[in-house]
Design goal:
binds ligand ME8, Rossmann fold, 16 strands, 49% helix, alpha/beta, elongated, 2 domains
Length: 505
């Protein structure tokens, strides 16, 4: 197993502020990055901004500013949101960065030299909001099948990428790497389209200028998607920084929304194969959030910004909800009713309550000091807690965040049931102090293990649990931290405020 890990998000267009949709992909990537760092892996987490193209040029013109001014303003907002959501990206790539533009030109030149780029004429449809070429047969009621807006007609001399030459190679790559694209339903959908045949794709534009100049023909700029996809390797310093590239590229996991799978699962791997590079290790396409059942749309007033949710309900609450509420890969609906429901049941009733009642008993029966373990107490819980890391690993291997959280909550709920079954107050009455201590030790140690299990999703709450357990400085790698028995008898606990106050529905 490699000890490096590389996770990316799409680079977001700079024509609008980020809503919960973009925050979702980045949060998921953040959880994976935090998790892999905690496992001791050398981790690289990349996000960024997609700044070129006709859509951005038009948006800037409408606002009477230059595209770069628009990009600078929106990017400042992106960075603020990421900081606010405690996103731990290691790099932020902008497609206007000179390092990126140099990589795009080197990549394009390599394909020209190989004979995989040739001049032709593109006469057909183009969707500016999606920056994609469309065929008549793609249209739904005359509109773009993705954004449902009317496409423009182009008639331009362009350069084309000979993607058809890679049809067999990409098909073989899918067949030899069954987990290359997940979920499987998306993989099957893409693979069947590949089997139907790949056409060459236009990769330059010549009727506007906001883009990376094409090497060898300054009348053309590189098509914005060809430019944008290369961000995943320009951030690794390709082609100059071979060491960084060789460390991280073989481990690359791209998280994308289901709207952009054709670009990521077909065009990008074909581009890489043409350049003599291997496709990424995995591409995971997640589903689509709606708000109260409606498409997220600023103009229709159905938009939720992460800051508004976090200011009202708390950061960890938001992070938990986004990853727990719907299985990664499926579509789902964001509603404040569902959010407050999760906060009150999973967070306040299950986890918060377990911590507060356990600590209240340690305070009352053992004068705020962690009691001695007792062999006979809670063998089943011990076993569950000891197996938790393996259970989470198995779920996160397939990016099943919701199921991984479910495994953690199974332990939390079992702990609450253990209290009901063991009735520590009766053990106290009977004077069975050794067993009482043993029961409470099992609960405390389970809570410590739970704190590490939730750390990537809810880092502040995880630390607060450990602070209340009296071990705020505990550090290490997950394989040690989630092993049973680290909590030392005699440690002074620090009871604090309730971890997750209940909220009004
Ligand atoms: O497509 N639900 O950028 P973009 C879930 N620049 N995820 C959503 C969402 C929703 N309602 N809305 C947006 C682009 N997303 C290109 C990418 S990458 C080389 C170039 C997320 O700003 C989801 O990840 O339109 C989607 O793929 C991404 O935002 C699109 O962001």
């Amino acid at each position: 197993m490699s000890d490096a890990y590389y996770v990316t998000t799409p680079i977001y267009y700079v024509n609008a502020d980020l809503h919960i949709g973009g925050a979702y992909t980045t949060l998921a990537a953040d959880v994976l990055a935090r998790y892999n760092r905690l496992k001791g892996k050398e981790t690289m987490f990349l996000t960024g901004s997609d700044e070129h193209g006709q859509k951005i040029e038009q948006a800037a013109r409408e606002q009477g500013i230059s595209p770069k001014e628009l990009a600078d303003r929106i990017v400042a907002g992106f960075k603020e949101v990421w900081e606010f959501l405690e996103i731990t990206n290691d790099d932020f790539i902008r497609t206007t960065d000179p390092r990126h533009e140099a990589t795009v030109q080197a990549f394009f030149k390599l394909l020209i030299d190989k004979g995989d780029i040739y001049k032709g004429v593109y006469s057909g449809l183009y969707c500016v909001p999606c920056e994609r070429y469309l065929k008549q047969s793609d249209l739904v009621e005359g509109n773009c099948p993705v954004c449902r807006r009317q496409p423009s007609t182009l008639d331009e001399e362009n350069y084309f990428f000979r993607m058809s030459a890679y049809q067999d190679a990409i098909r073989r790559h899918y067949e030899e790497n069954p987990d290359f694209v997940e979920p499987q339903s998306r993989r099957n959908e893409v693979l069947s389209r590949i089997r139907m045949g790949l056409e060459d794709v236009s990769v330059s534009r010549s009727t506007f200028t906001w883009g990376v100049p094409m090497p060898g023909d300054s009348k053309h700029i590189v098509w914005v998607w060809f430019d944008a996809l290369i961000n995943y390797i320009s951030a690794l310093g390709w082609p100059e920084d071979r060491e960084k590239f060789d460390t991280f590229w073989p481990q690359a996991v791209h998280l994308v929304g289901k709207d952009i799978i054709w670009f990521h699962c077909v065009i990008w791997p074909c581009m890489l194969l043409a350049a003599g590079l291997t496709p990424p290790k995995k591409i995971f396409a997640h589903g689509w959030w709606t708000i109260d059942g409606k498409k997220i749309s600023k103009s229709a007033g159905t938009v939720v910004y992460p800051r508004d949710v976090v200011e009202k309900y708390g950061l960890d609450q938001f992070r938990y909800f986004m990853l727990r509420e719907i299985p990664f890969g499926a579509d789902g609906d964001f509603s404040f009713k569902a959010l407050t429901g999760r906060i009150n049941s999973d967070l306040a009733d299950d986890l918060g309550n377990l911590l507060s009642r356990t600590l209240a008993m340690v305070s009352k029966y053992f004068n705020n000091s962690v009691p001695e373990p007792a062999d006979e107490a809670g063998a089943e819980l011990r076993e569950m807690a000891s197996g938790l890391l393996a259970a989470i690993d198995a779920e996160l291997e397939h990016l099943a965040f919701s199921r991984a959280l479910d495994r953690i909550w199974e332990l939390i709920r079992r702990c609450n049931k253990f209290i009901e079954d063991e009735k520590p107050w009766l053990l106290k009455k009977k004077g069975d102090t050794a067993k009482l201590g043993g029961v409470l030790y099992v609960l405390l140690e389970s809570l410590r293990i739970v704190s590490w299990a939730i750390e990537p999703v809810m880092p502040a709450s995880a630390l607060e649990i450990r602070r209340q357990l009296g071990i705020p400085d505990e550090k290490g790698v997950l394989s040690e931290l989630m092993t049973w028995g680290h909590l030392k008898p005699g440690t002074s606990i620090n009871r604090g405020d309730s971890l997750f106050p209940k909220v009004e529905q």
